[in-house]
Amino acid sequence: MQAEPEAFARGLENALDLEMVTRMFGALAALSNVSLSVRPGERRAVLGSNGAGKTTLFNCITGDFLPTSGTIRFFGEDVTEFPPQERVRRGLRRTYQTSLLFKKLTVRENVHLACRGVSRQRFSFFPSRRDDVLIAAAEKLVEAVHLTSAKDKIVADLSHGQQRQLEIAMALAGAPRLILFDEPAAGLSPAERQDLVAILTSLPAHIGFIIIEHDMDVALRVAESVTVMHDGRIFKEGAPREIEADEEVQELYLGGEDG
Ligand SMILES: Nc1ncnc2c1ncn2[C@@H]1O[C@H](COP(=O)(O)OP(=O)(O)OP(=O)(O)O)[C@@H](O)[C@H]1O
């Protein structure tokens, strides 16, 4: 389908458009005039040393923080002032650095609750007629994150890596169009990192994501585009190979504390 010319002008073809987004904390600009566009289905890595503004960027996109100034559009709609739940309803998801899982429930129960929560906009422990559909959806998500053999395990008994995989399944509940992954490889073993790369690269093509990741190997393998941040600003954007070979980026980031 051909989009209207004005639609292109307004950025309707993009999953996400940030225009001059600034977020102040007192006198500190955690984000400073950040403009960024992500196409539907695009996989983007956001790199940058500690304090570069990556998490603040995610918080502004999700609505956990409102920007001090600037505009955020999600699939063409101005969501700048929307609360987080309204963005979830439109297909935006995120994972956090800290786990938000129900530790005493099984893998399957966690994913099922996520599916129910997203479908009704709240968590409920009472069954409904749609439950069989949601249970089937949950099974598929458990499989997509390679947890089928652990599906009846209590979350507290999972390895750290399995818990991170489960968080991805939770983010996939409903009909996500864009997922923000916040350091999904943190604390994973090399084998678990391989598994993570396989999971992320096997996601359905229409689901885009932005990944904050300190593990360059993981980030550059799963992403098709890279944004490097520094001091709350966008320092560089490009394809993984360009960014990897960029001398200024190497000096700033790859050769630094996180490289
Ligand atoms: N809630 C807050 N209150 C005050 N300052 C904050 C807050 N959140 C972030 N900052 C500051 O904003 C700047 C950017 O922080 P942010 O967490 O976005 O960086 P980051 O790139 O995600 O870093 P890291 O890799 O360490 O997570 C930092 O100087 C940080 O101290």
TrEMBL record:
Matching SMART domains: AAA (SM00382)
Source superkingdom: Bacteria
Molecular function via GO: ATP binding; ATP hydrolysis activity; L-isoleucine transmembrane transporter activity; L-phenylalanine transmembrane transporter activity; L-valine transmembrane transporter activity
Residue intervals of the ABC transporter domain: 16-256
UniProt keyword ATP-binding, yes or no: yes
Pfam families the UniProt entry points to: ABC_tran
An annotated GO BP: L-alanine transport
Signal peptide (from-to): none
Keyword annotations: ATP-binding, Nucleotide-binding, Transport
Gene Ontology cellular-component annotations: plasma membrane
CDD domains: ABC_Mj1267_LivG_branched (cd03219)
InterPro entries per the UniProt record, alphabetical: AAA+_ATPase, ABC_AA/LPS_Transport, ABC_transporter-like_ATP-bd, P-loop_NTPase
Protein name, per record: ABC transporter ATP-binding protein
Annotated source species: Hypericibacter adhaerens
